[in-house]
Design goal:
This protein is mostly helical. The protein is 68% helix and 0% strand. It folds into 3 domains: 74 residues; 100 residues, no CATH class; 94 residues, no CATH class. Helix 1 runs antiparallel to helix 2, helix 6 runs antiparallel to helix 7 and helix 9 packs antiparallel against helix 10.
Length: 295
Amino acid sequence: MRKYCLILTIVYSFTFAQTKDYSKLSKDELINIINSNEKEIKSLREKLVIEKSAKDKLESKQSFSINSEIAELKKSIKETNSVFLREMFDNKYVNKSYLMETDLGIDDISTRIENSKILITSILLDETNKDVFEVCKKALIFNQNYLKLFEIRNNVLNQKYDVQKVTTSIKEIEDLPILDENSKLDVTKNKIRNLLKNYLENTCFLKKTLSDYKRGGETSIMKQKYSELEKSDRYKDYPYLIKIIKKIKNNINDYTNDDLQPCEEVKTTTTDPVKSEGVKEGTPTKENDPKSGKQ
């Protein structure tokens, strides 16, 4: 409205500025000029009102159109959920203990996880029930954790120790949203975090053990010792370390010091860049500690 008033003021001033010297005009001439200007201003005001009205109607029409489209989309989502998706969602997340009982699998199900996110998002767009809404949020958190943990297991624990990858992965796990306590995936999450924190220490411990075992040759007794290493709590959840144990078990000449992180100068209690906390995942027992003399 201020813009319209400004325009009128400018027009009014401009109109009077175009006239001759008013002191030389008669009273009637001045009255005629004023009346003429007032008529012009009135006409301009009417035009502005018409233009503003037209603009408001256009904006209202556009707003109505957008709101109508949103309403149609919501209706479509509601119908789709009701006919196809809600039963699927309830069967997976509401009627079963999926979020508590599902653990990290061996096979890559990333595509299925991504598809389930679409299902959950569709339910969220239409849902008003608070309990169902909470289930949706927990399901999205579960999916986020699952995908990241699967990625770390495959790309970090399944590869030779890399301090940067391990450090980054620990940070990524700690930044993940919280899962239901004591759910299977939550247990696995904590386990993988501890495995990462102890990866360097366990790698160095295995390096020392294999160096000792290698002196025993390829006898049946030594092969049994390698088999026991594969099953030990310390190494069984490290895919890469298990691969190295199997490698030397099959042929000691295939194993080299480069297969494991060089550990000659590593002091695991002081210089490990990723320190452990409390009792570690895969802590050696007397039975599988080569220093104990019991194998």
